[in-house]
Design goal:
Elements: H1 3-22, H2 51-62, H3 78-92, H4 100-110, H5 118-127, H6 131-144, H7 150-159, H8 163-175, H9 183-190, H10 195-204, H11 220-227, E1 230-251, E2 254-275, H12 277-287, H13 295-307
Antiparallel strand pairs: 1-2
Helix pairs in contact: 3-4, 3-5, 4-6, 5-6, 6-8, 7-8, 7-10, 8-10, 9-10, 9-11, 10-12, 11-13
Amino acid sequence: MSRPCRMQSRSVLSVLWVVAFLFPFGLRADDAKPAAPGEQAQAGDPAPRDEKDDEAKAKLAEHPWEKDPPPLDLEMSAEEWKKQLRAWREEVGEPLRWTKDALAVMDKIRAVKDPAAVEAILALLDKEKNTSVRFLYIQALGRTGSKKAIAPLAKLAVEDEQPDIRHEAAKSLGTLPDKREALPQLIRYLGSKHSARAAQALRWSGLTQRLGTFESPDSYLTRALINALIVKKKTRVPVGYWYAWWKASAVPGGRHMRGHFESGIGTKDVDVPAPNPEVLEALKEYSGQDYEYDVRAWEKWHQERKNSPPDDP
């Protein structure tokens, strides 16, 4: 290769090397070029604002969700309520329409107080996927004051996988005049894998508030809370193992023994005692005492409590 050709090749390689070195650092030919008026925005520029979306969000934020809507003085048959609630659900839309009219319809749904609407609300709630609409139905169940809403709300307050829904269901349960009828159901949950959720539901619904005396001479709720203070949780732990087998077989000239031996490290699921903080908080609130996780101290106090005269109402 001639000398000029070699020099030209070196120059090209030098340029390629500089480009390859600077490329990872974001150097571009357009970096030093000022954007002309009307040109497309660069990747780092803020996206254009959607005025309609901003307006919807503003209306949503200004809506008085924490304030109870005026009671809806409508009384209809169960069948009429099914039709009415379905019509309101369609007006709200999916995805939800955050317009003034749609918000007014949402207020109507959560303001329902007719006990005849309970069955229709429960049917719609069972199929509803939208969390916001589920909130509306749960609030309406509490405003009906119906005994038919007790068991479904207690179940939602414990079994639903969404913490916000469990909290709202427990709050609505707490507004029912006969909410203490939910105690047997929640006590059963205390003895299950959902003991922590059941304790939360008891607190959120106001069922652990001090009443001066316990709910019965045997104090079933106190006993159930004490029993749930320490729970067993499955924990995988390493363990050593070994096994051997031997087998006798007949061979020419006599008997022959053959066998196998093996050892190693494996894992095993075991029940390990673990504290239950939610239950402790419920027990402290209900009893007014605090023996932490000392089950024996709680049992001693509980026995003395049962043997002593009840508090003055």
